[in-house]
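ping. complex inputs:
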Amino acid sequence: MSAQAPHNTLLIPGPIEFDDAVLQSMAHYAESHVAPGFVKVFGETLTLTRKLFQSTDPSAQPFIISGSGTLGWDLVASNLIERGENALVLNTGYFGDSFEQCLSTYGAQVTQLRAPIGERPSLEQIEQALKEKTYKLITLTHVDTSTGVLNDVKGVAQLVRRVSPETLVIVDGVCSVGSEEIAFDEWDLDAVVTASQKAIGCPPGLSIVMTSGRAIQRATTRQTPPGSYYASIANWLPIMRNYENNKPSYFATPPTQLIHALHTTLSQITARPMAERFAIHTQVSDSVKAAVAQLGLKQLAPNPDAQAHGMTAMYLPEGLTPPDVLPGLLKRGVIFAAGLHKEIATRYIRFGHMGVSVTDANRGDIDKALSALKEALAEAKQAKGL
Amino acid sequence: MSAQAPHNTLLIPGPIEFDDAVLQSMAHYAESHVAPGFVKVFGETLTLTRKLFQSTDPSAQPFIISGSGTLGWDLVASNLIERGENALVLNTGYFGDSFEQCLSTYGAQVTQLRAPIGERPSLEQIEQALKEKTYKLITLTHVDTSTGVLNDVKGVAQLVRRVSPETLVIVDGVCSVGSEEIAFDEWDLDAVVTASQKAIGCPPGLSIVMTSGRAIQRATTRQTPPGSYYASIANWLPIMRNYENNKPSYFATPPTQLIHALHTTLSQITARPMAERFAIHTQVSDSVKAAVAQLGLKQLAPNPDAQAHGMTAMYLPEGLTPPDVLPGLLKRGVIFAAGLHKEIATRYIRFGHMGVSVTDANRGDIDKALSALKEALAEAKQAKGL
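pong. complex structure:
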C-alpha cells in the first residue's frame, strides 16, 4: 500500500512513478549544503552514480548539478569542443535537433546525419561520415524520447575508436540511463548526459553527466576558456571531487532535497546487479510490444533492434489522434504522452515503461495500462465510427 | 508542533528552515510537466512571483528555471549584454567577484568598483564611474551573503536613470528577495536574480529571475545570438508566457516537486502585504544586532544603513575562530555559518534570520540562537583562557 495520495498512474517517458522512500526523501528537513551529514550523502551519491554506469575507472568523473537534463548538453558543448571545431550529430528525432542547436550556440560546426523517422543512421553511413572530416566529437541519442528509437551505442563507440580514435563519443542518455544497458568504461564512452526523472526514478531537477578521463583532459587543456559559467567543468570539477572525498566545497548551492532522493533511488537500483535491471526492462518491453502489436498498432521504430526498452511510441489507427485516445486512458487512471516529433505529432502516442512500474510487478501498472489502452482504443474507434 | 523529524535549527544565510506545508509539497506524487493540473500550478507560481516583486507591469517577465541561483547570472550575462560591451560591477564581496567571472565568460568587458570589506561604493563613486564610460549594464549585490552588506538598490537605480538611462540595472537578490524591500516596477529595475532557498523559504534548486520589459527588449533584439543555450531568454520566454497563460509548453522538464513547494511558500508570503514581511524582518534584525552588540561583537558592516536585515555577519573576539564557536552552537541545537570572504574567513561567523524563523515567533528560533551564541562564546573564551 502506497503512502502517496491517490493519483493516476504516470506512464509517460518521464517523469515516472516514484517509490515511496524516494519521494519521502524529498521532504528532508533543512540542512546546510556544507554540513558533514549532507557532504557524506552527496559524496556517496556521486559514488553510486559510478555504479549506475558500471564504471570503476578512477579517471572517470560524474557530475550532479541542479538543472534539467538539457543543461548536460551545455556542459558538453561549452567544455568538450571549441569554437570552429567539428561535431557530428546522429539525428534520430527532436532531441538531435536540440543538441545541434546547443552545440551551435557555443560555436561548434555541426554536421548532422539524419535518419528517416523511426530509423537510425547505419554503421556504414557513420563510418563514411567519420572519414570525410575530422570530428572533435560525435553525439548520439541513446533513446530518442520523441520516437522511441534505440541507437547502438556500443557499436557506434567501437566504430569511432577504430576509424577516428580521437573523436569523443557523447551519448544523450536522458531516456536510457537506468533502463538500457550502458557499460561506460567497457564501451569506452566519453560522456553520457542524463537527468534524474526518467528510469533513474527521482523527481526532475538534476542534470547528471558521466565523463571519461579523456573528456576531462580535453576540458581542462582547451585553448580557449569554457563557453559557459554555470556549466563549466573547470568550475564544477573541484566541487565534485571534494564532495566525493568527504570535503565540503562551494560553487553554487546544490539542491539538497533532490540529492537525498537521488541517493535513495540509486541505493535501491545498485543494490542489485545492473544486468538484472536491464533484463527486466527488456522482458517487460517485449511483452508491451507484443500486446501493442496484437492491438494492431505499429511502432514508430519498425526494426526490433532499434526499439527502446523503457518506452514504446506507437502510431494510432488511421483517423484517430491523441486527443481521441488519451482522455479514455485517463478515465481509466492511466497517463500516456502525446506525440512530440513535429512532423507526425498528431499521429502517435508514447507509453513509458521504466522504473518502479516495471521492477515492482505488485503495482500492476503495466497490465492496467495495457487493458486501459485496449478499452480506450475501442471506445475511440466506436465514437469515430471506425 | 512540527511534522518534521527532530533536527538542529538551521540559521545560516540559506538554505533556511522550512514551513511544514512547503516541505510536504516536495513529496508531491508524480505528474506530467504538461498535464493541466501542473500547468495551472506553474502558471500561478509565475503570477505569484510578480506579487513577490510587487510588480504589476505586464511587460515585466518572471523566469523560474531548474538550477541554482548562480544560473541567473548566466541568464543575465548571456542575454542582456553582448561580447565586447561594458559592464560595471559594484563589488562588495565574494559574489561581486563571481558575477564578474560570469560576465567575462560571455565576453563582457567588466569594470569593477570595489568597496573595502564591510563597505559599499558611494553614490558619488558610482556616478563618477558611470560618467567615465558607457555601460550596457550595472550589477549590484543587494545583500552580499559573504559580508552581510546591504546595497542601496533604490538609490543606485535612481542614479542610473538620471546619469545613464540606457544602462540596465541588474540586482543579485539571492540573499535579499523575501527579506529586503524590493519594488521592482517603482524602482525601475531591469533584472533581479534570486534563488528559492533563502528568504523565499523553498528548498534549493530553482533559479528565479525577474526581468523588465526593457531587459526583454534588449534580449530579443540583440545583434548576436545569446551566448548560452540552457540560459537563453529566447528559449525560455515562450515557455514562461505559455505556462502563465495556462498552456503546456516544453523546452526542458521543469522540477515539478520544487515548483509545488515554491507555489506553497509564495502563496503564504503573498497572502499578507509585502510591507508587513519587510517590517518584521527589519524588527527582528534590529533586535539581533542589538543583542550582538551587547555581546561585544562587531559587525562586518559597521554602517547601520548598509546592514542586511536577513542576516548578520559578525567578527569573533580576538583569538577565536569559527571552529572554536560553531560546535558550541551546534551542541545547543543551532547552526550558524562560518566566514566566506577569503581575506577574513577565519575571523567571523554568519547568522541567517529569514523566513519562518523570523515570521513565526512561536518557533522561538531567534531567542534560542541568541542564548546559544552567548553561551558558546563564553565557553570558547574560557577554553582559550581569554
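The radius of gyration of chain A is 21 Å.
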